Amino acid sequence: MNFSKDISNKLNELLIKNYDAEKGYLNAVDNIESDRLKMFFKRRASERSEFAKELRTEILQYGEIPEDSGSFKGTMHRNWTSLKATFSSNNEETVLEEAIKGEKASLEEYNELLKERNLPPTIDALLLKHKNAIQAAINTEKVQEELVS
């Protein structure tokens, strides 16, 4: 496999994770009552949509084809979160816990890719920007979780 194909494959994996995260946040909006949390989740979904656009652009620049949807695993996780929220006494706290869990998984994916030393500087900078935004979201979600628990 050539260098650009290898990088594109790795970026496509992150792209799928961002599609899943965006859909997960939009799903969360449907599972809570709080207008404050709805806005918070909508902003996270919008941010993940922007990440996906940036990753698609990078993949296209390498002459490869970006993925166009999320994963089966992501769909299953969203369904599990909805079911769990339905039967939970504190729906908002449950949804936030799942959001934090998902963000931590995303953060690990970004950290793994950033460990590679052969990434072009533009991709490295883009991934670092995304990683920092995800970490900030985790920190904010933890604060939100404490407020609703």
UniProtKB/TrEMBL annotation:
InterPro entries: CHP02284 (IPR011971), DUF2383 (IPR019052), Ferritin-like (IPR012347), Ferritin-like_SF (IPR009078), UCP029477 (IPR016920). Residues 6-116 form the DUF2383 domain. SUPFAM superfamilies: Ferritin-like. Gene3D superfamilies: 1.20.1260.10. NCBIfam families: PA2169 family four-helix-bundle protein. This is PA2169 family four-helix-bundle protein. The lineage of its organism: Bacteria, Pseudomonadati, Bacteroidota, Flavobacteriia, Flavobacteriales.
